[in-house]
């Protein structure tokens, strides 16, 4: 048993000054079969600590049931066995470029609830969640023989709000539920953020990607005592669909790391290993300086241009950081662990069946609802996935423009069974007018809920209404297809022959594997959708890039035949090739 405390200028372990050299690694973004390898990579880079968020919505996606909360405990045990301390950031809000910033949509979408405030309805949900979650953290604190040395209160609250009473309540809740190690907050190094997001008596840390001395000087204006720590050194960055891949020069990033250490500070690399937002859990941002602009959905890969890449390989940044971090150790750093197995040889997916989106919805979808105006995803209980809205245009009437108010995020439209176009927030009106009578189907997809900024928590679906000219069309029928519905398999879905023209729908196939190991899946000619391999969801693919393939963790594959499902939501190029597995 040891005691980890916050001194006047240092972290103290049993009274002796220590420096935290930490790296972010999210257990929920790494296949459990690779945890130990990735933790060993952090040790080999020269780190002595690992940091992770905890996603509330991943563990409690719908009311009434938790999902593998013990995964956090298993990860912390693995960190301790790897010889690493651990920092836990339980939120409940985490940002992390994660769907809805980690909060369940059934909480953010509950009428009357004001999240990230002292609203009692919200806090009652948090108390219930923390009661379960603390069973995984409390017994693994360092003063009980575990690796956990720090626990965060909320996350970057100063960039969102100024309700210090909310932070005080969360800190008190953590203490009441058994957290005895030091608590901390983290925010950007700006006066309004540190004013709104810090608490008296709680360690304040700062997040930045450059100008370390200026950042710590700002922190010192607010806190004259306590150890300096950059809780998020942004050594890379994330990518958006339709944007450019972000890359940071390894030498320049290593120079900033050296500057942080020269300030006598502790550091947490964000990210040390980013991993992958499997299962369609990637979040989204709003563009513009005030985060109020167009939606910018995050890609599936969370490689983050990190020192350990998405496949677990060391990059140039890894070696540059290792050189800098070696100066903080008396002896040689640990050697790199053996690399995980890689796919033995390329293999092509053989597609042998197809089911229309309508048939998939009929088999796996939720209950149909009818309402005067379109219900949102939250009202239908859809966490991630899509909703089919149906409405009748009465007639006879002449053709008028058909448009959607409050569309979030993308709709593929069919009129009387014929595809009529794709609508977005920026282009919510069909190019060709629609006459009546007619039946309109709108397959609306969420591209990821906002995880940061003032529009965090906004609803998905058609949030305003369906307009024909200026007239609302009422009597909307809606039915959701949640991605979690595929967790139980697709055996009940009716399959037929492959369609001509690459129609939207669920494609079934198999791929032979000889030499199972880490691989990537390419989908040339496919537009946008989701992929499962042996029931494991790889996440979203999208032809707009910049991501061009999906990571397939080796533990997902097996020798011989493997099952593949591709849910194409728009259309596949009939001249395109079948999906194929390639070694990483």
UniProtKB/TrEMBL annotation:
The Beta-galactosidase galactose-binding domain sits at: 506-562
Q: Which UniProt keywords apply?
A: Glycosidase, Hydrolase
Q: What InterPro entries does UniProt report for this protein, alphabetically?
A: B-gal_1-like (IPR026283), BetaGal1-like_ABD1 (IPR048912), BetaGal_gal-bd (IPR048913), Galactose-bd-like_sf (IPR008979), GH (IPR017853), Gly_Hdrlase_35_cat (IPR031330), Glyco_hydro_35_CS (IPR019801), Glycoside_Hdrlase_35 (IPR001944)
Q: Where is the Glycoside hydrolase 35 catalytic domain?
A: 11-325
Q: Does the keyword Transit peptide apply?
A: no
Pfam families, A to Z? BetaGal_ABD_1, BetaGal_gal-bd, Glyco_hydro_35
Task: Tell me which residues make up the Beta-galactosidase 1-like first all-beta domain.
Answer: 374-475
Q: Which SUPFAM superfamilies match?
A: (Trans)glycosidases, Galactose-binding domain-like
Which protein family is named in the record?
A: Belongs to the glycosyl hydrolase 35 family.
Protein name per the record: Beta-galactosidase
Upper classification of the organism: Bacteria, Bacillati, Actinomycetota, Actinomycetes, Kitasatosporales
């Amino acid at each position: 048993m040891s005691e980890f405390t916050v001194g006047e200028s240092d972290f103290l372990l049993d009274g002796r000054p220590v420096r935290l050299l930490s790296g972010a690694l999210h257990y929920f973004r790494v296949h459990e079969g690779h945890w130990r390898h990735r933790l060993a990579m952090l040790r080999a880079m020269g780190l002595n600590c690992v940091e992770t968020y905890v996603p509330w919505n991943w563990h409690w996606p719908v009311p009434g049931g938790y999902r593998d909360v013990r995964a956090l405990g298993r990860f912390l045990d693995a960190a301790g066995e790897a010889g690493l301390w651990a920092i836990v950031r339980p939120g409940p809000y985490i940002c992390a470029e994660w769907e809805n910033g980690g909060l369940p949509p059934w909480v953010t979408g509950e009428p009357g609830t004001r999240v990230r405030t002292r609203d009692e309805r919200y806090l009652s949900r948090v108390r219930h969640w923390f009661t379960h979650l603390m069973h995984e953290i409390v017994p693994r604190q360092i003063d009980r023989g575990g690796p956990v040395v720090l626990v965060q209160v909320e996350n970057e609250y100063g960039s969102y709000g100024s309700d210090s009473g909310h932070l005080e309540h969360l800190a008190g809740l953590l203490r009441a539920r058994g957290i005895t190690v030091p608590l901390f907050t983290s925010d950007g190094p700006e006066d309004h953020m540190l004013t709104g997001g810090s608490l008296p008596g709680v360690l304040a840390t700062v997040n930045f990607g450059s100008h370390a001395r200026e950042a710590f000087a700002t922190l010192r204006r607010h806190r004259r005592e306590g150890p300096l720590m950059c809780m998020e050194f942004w050594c890379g960055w994330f990518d958006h669909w339709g944007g450019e891949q972000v890359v940071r020069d390894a030498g320049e990033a290593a120079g900033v790391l050296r500057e942080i250490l020269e300030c006598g500070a502790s550091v947490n690399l964000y990210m040390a290993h980013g991993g992958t937002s499997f299962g369609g859990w990637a979040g989204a941002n709003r563009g513009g300086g005030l985060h109020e602009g167009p939606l910018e959905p995050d890609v599936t890969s969370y490689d983050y241009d990190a020192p350990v890449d998405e496949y677990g390989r060391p990059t140039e940044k890894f070696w540059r950081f290792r050189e800098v971090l070696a100066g903080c150790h008396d002896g040689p750093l640990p050697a790199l662990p053996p690399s995980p197995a890689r796919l033995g040889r390329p293999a092509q997916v053989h597609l042998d069946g197809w089911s229309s989106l309508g048939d998939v919805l009929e088999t796996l979808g939720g209950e149909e609802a009818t309402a005067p105006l379109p219900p949102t995803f939250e009202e239908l209980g859809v966490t991630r996935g899509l909703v089919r809205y149906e409405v009748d245009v009465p007639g006879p009437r002449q053709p008028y423009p058909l448009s959607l108010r409050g569309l979030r995020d993308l709709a593929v439209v069919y009129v009387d069974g014929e595809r009529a176009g794709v609508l977005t927030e920026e282009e919510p009106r069909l190019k060709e007018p629609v006459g009546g009578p007619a039946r309109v189907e709108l397959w609306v997809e969420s591209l990821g809920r906002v995880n940061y900024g003032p529009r965090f928590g906004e609803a998905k679906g058609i949030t305003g209404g369906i307009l024909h000219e200026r007239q609302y069309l009422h009597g909307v029928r809606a039915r959701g297809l949640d991605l979690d519905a595929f967790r139980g398999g697709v055996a009940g879905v009716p399959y037929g022959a492959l369609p001509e023209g690459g129609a939207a729908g669920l494609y079934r196939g198999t791929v032979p594997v000889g030499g199972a190991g880490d691989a990537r899946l390419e989908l040339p000619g496919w537009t946008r959708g989701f992929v499962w391999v042996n029931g494991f969801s790889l996440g979203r693919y999208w032809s707009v890039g910049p991501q061009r393939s999906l990571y397939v963790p080796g533990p997902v594959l097996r020798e011989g035949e493997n099952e593949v499902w591709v849910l194409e939501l728009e259309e596949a190029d009939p001249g395109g090739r079948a999906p194929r597995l390639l070694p990483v």
